[in-house]
Amino acid sequence: MEKSALQIARAAYQPKLPAGLRGNVSIKEGNATESVGDQEDIKKLFPNTYGMPLVEFVPSDEKKEYAPMNIGIILSGGQAPGGHNVICGLYDELKKQNAANKLYGFLMGPGGLVDHKYIELTDALIDEYRNTGGFDLIGSGRTKLEEEAQFESGLEIIRELGIKAVVIIGGDDSNTNACVLAEYYAAHNYGVQVIGCPKTIDGDLKNDQIETSFGFDTACKTYAEVIGNIQRDANSARKYWHFIKLMGRSASHIALECALQCQPNVCIVSEEVEEKNQTLDDIVTYIADIVARRAANGNNFGTVLIPEGLIEFIPAMKKLIAELNDLLATPEAAAVAAAEQRAWILSKLSADNAAIYASLPEGVAKQLTMERDPHGNVQVSLIETEKLLSEMVAVKLEAWKAEGKFNGKFAAQHHFFGYEGRCAAPSNYDADYCYALGASAAQLVANGKTGYMAIVKNTTAPAEQWIAGGVPITMMMNMERRHGKMKPVIKKALVRLDGAPFKEFAAHREDWAVNTRFVYPGPIQYFGPSEVCDQCTMTLKLEQA
């Protein structure tokens, strides 16, 4: 693999470990746990992995002897910066425990376990990927481990390779599946452990035990750099409004963090839109009003941050999408010619939904009706929300101009930052955090744990003071309706409107709206003073203050 000068320099970086993982390690167990909701239902579904204690790793004077063991590792779901360092941390801790230990990487996600596709990870291979972004060491995939046939197929290769445990690195769904797999192997006394690691750049896998999901820090710093560059350009040219859509279908954590870092004129938070029962027109009017107020001061430019999943949080749009899903699933819909589709849909929708549909720009209306996922649902992530909002703002401003309420100029530019952040070289925070997660996973396996997620806490402090351990995955679960059935899932963390990060944003947004308070964060710094290089997100600082 060809390496850049930065990669060569980064390869030499030694991630910092918590004191509890640096030398000899002992395990400290806490009290029994219970799930965050639906305790009886979760307990029935996971009788072998429910109620286990929280665990913490602490320094010890006693040197343990570890029997040799083999572990398999899987990257599941979308990429997030730091995944390679989880693998490196796991590998190094394994080799520290016993030089005979082996680590196998299953290729292209959970499907690699089911289809028996793997490689053995060696010193030479691992050293190529230390502190690098991406998941390209073993690849990732979105196969869901849900069926008994998959579990049994996986068991065949586990037995063949003499694997004691499988570590699954993923988000809430992947870790839910990890827990299901752990329960299945425990129920059948197969002697195979399963451990999870918390990954997602969206930041929605967090709770009292998981301070942040890995990759969120790096992704937000990557996006904030580019937003800062755009803001500098906007402030230089003074003629464009930049509408910037950011990753985050299920929650607005990325948009909020980037707003805290960059201080844009507008940031829409989906959870607030839903809480206040806002309409699409409410959002458009809010943005148009800020454009008009800035224009009155001679500032015909600005930035607007928009979460990817905003449409699904607008209550009226949610109702429209639900009716469209049902309508477009009918045989009659399939027979309608493309040129007649809009008129046919308008004739079939309820009055309220027809009015909303009619108000949408034609391109967006088409996206709502044409792009379907395998379950027959609209793929809202493909809707160009940034263009939808800017077009509707332009129409409103033209109307205001005719009424004498707006005398400025409005020209929009559009951006969507998604893939740009998923495989960035990890920040020092993510490099350290992920390495510690990998080492924790190895310790959980060595201590006979299954159905646990590796965790590292107190991460706003210097790394030596971080606290490593594990949390039973069942502790984070509740029951939710998925595809018409009640299923156990890890509860998603949405932006809390009563939380410190949102309150900090809300306290300043009126000032940022009218005045140009742009901050230009610049690129991620890997070398230099700790106060520049080792900082966590502003979200985490505020939450842990």
Record the SSE blueprint.
Elements: H1 5-11, E1 25-32, H2 39-45, E2 53-59, E3 70-75, H3 83-97, E4 102-106, H4 110-114, E5 118-121, H5 123-128, H6 148-161, E6 163-170, H7 172-187, E7 193-198, H8 216-237, E8 241-246, H9 253-262, E9 266-267, H10 270-275, H11 280-296, E10 302-307, H12 310-313, H13 315-328, H14 331-335, H15 341-348, H16 351-359, H17 362-370, H18 385-402, E11 412-417, H19 419-422, H20 428-446, E12 452-457, E13 467-472, E14 477-482, E15 485-490, H21 500-514, H22 530-533, H23 538-543
Parallel strand pairs: 3-4, 3-6, 6-7, 7-12, 8-10, 8-11, 9-10
Antiparallel strand pairs: 1-2, 2-13, 4-5, 12-13, 14-15
Describe the 3D structure.
This protein is α/β, with parallel strands linked by helices and 545 residues long. It folds into two domains: 56-201 and 428-463, Rossmann fold; 217-246 and 248-417 and 499-543, Phosphofructokinase domain (Rossmann fold). The chain has 23 helices and 15 strands. It has helices at residues 5-11, 39-45, 83-97, 110-114, 123-128, 148-161, 172-187, 216-237, 253-262, 270-275, 280-296, 310-313, 315-328, 331-335, 341-348, 351-359, 362-370, 385-402, 419-422, 428-446, 500-514, 530-533, 538-543; strands spanning 25-32, 53-59, 70-75, 102-106, 118-121, 163-170, 193-198, 241-246, 266-267, 302-307, 412-417, 452-457, 467-472, 477-482, 485-490. The chain has a nine-stranded mixed beta sheet with strand order 1-2-13-12-7-6-3-4-5, with helices on both faces. A four-stranded parallel beta sheet has the order 9-10-8-11, sandwiched between helices. Strand 6, helix 7 and strand 7 form a beta-alpha-beta unit. Helix 13 crosses helix 16. The longest helix has 22 residues, at 216-237. The radius of gyration is 25 Å and the shape is globular. The protein starts with a helix and ends with a helix.
